[in-house]
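Handover notes (outgoing to incoming on-call)

Open items:
1. ATP-binding cassette domain-containing protein: sequence verified, structure written out, both below. Nothing else pending on this one.
2. Nothing else urgent.
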Amino acid sequence: MGVEVAVEGLSKSFGSQKIWQDVTLTLPAGEVSALLGPSGTGKSVFLKSLIGLLRPEEGKIIIDGTDILQCSAKELYEVRQMFGVLFQDGALFGSMDLYDNVAFPLREHTKKSESEIRKIVMEKLELNGLLGAENKLPGEISGGMRKRAGLARALVLDPEIILVDEPDSGLDPVRTTYLAQLLIDINAQIDATILIVTHNINLARTVPDNLGMLFRKRLVMFGPREVLLTSDEPVVKQFLNGSKIGPIGMSEEKDDAQMAAELAMKEAGHHDGSHEVYGVVPQMQATPGMPVRQAVGRRQARVREILHTLPPEAQEAILESLNSDQPTQVIPVVDPENGQSSTGRIG
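ATP-binding cassette domain-containing protein structure tokens:
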């Protein structure tokens, strides 16, 4: 099972520019979490801080009991072995074929024989729908296949924590859904702790167990999906609905006069192109035949414990979600790159 990642009072600057400050959150062990926010809010900086690639000036990052901002280089190396990371572009070595790219961490960090390495590599390639492509170079395949190859490489050391930076970057909506389904299935199989950094609204609504949002250099909220999807926090509501109405502007935050003018236009019937959704939309489920995702039960138990503290309208929407016996909707998912089909479930 994955491990808990606790962040306390974290602040990061580049020179005189404050990126974010006093960020405190806990990624629950074995659950899928997503960190949202408009472009330029430091989401990727946060992800790189968790693995020690960037060093915040203040705060703690506690992973399996070790504060990586205070530990020795040897301890940091050991903690990093718990991570698998999928960067935006896959970060593959262009001169190596997919097999050698995926095998690289095993050759670098273990003493396994080549026959053992081959077994693991082929297993991860199969999991990611890449059997038959192992001899191709990254430059010979599509962006979606490079993403999946990057994910295969991130999984070869059986990580307890998986970090995913902008999984939809450079991908169309169909391939993004396919990759999201893969992450859900991986969580079902190995119960890893997963953090997805994204600004994709559909992915944020339907995939993670927990949501957090960075805005104006602070963590606005972090908690179970049910809480954020029913939140009246203006910036959270605006972002999750893709609306112009709210504090987020094109470049900087808006002033009160601009917000009032936009609200007046909305009340007068002007539509800004957003699709306002209130309530808990169905979450993507693991593909039929996969183990039951234990994360769902753990998250729902936490939600029931805090339900009484939420506004009445939110309580009603969340209870309806928790108590509903929605029939599972089986959706065929065809990988546009190799024509193979699998099934995903929403409900």
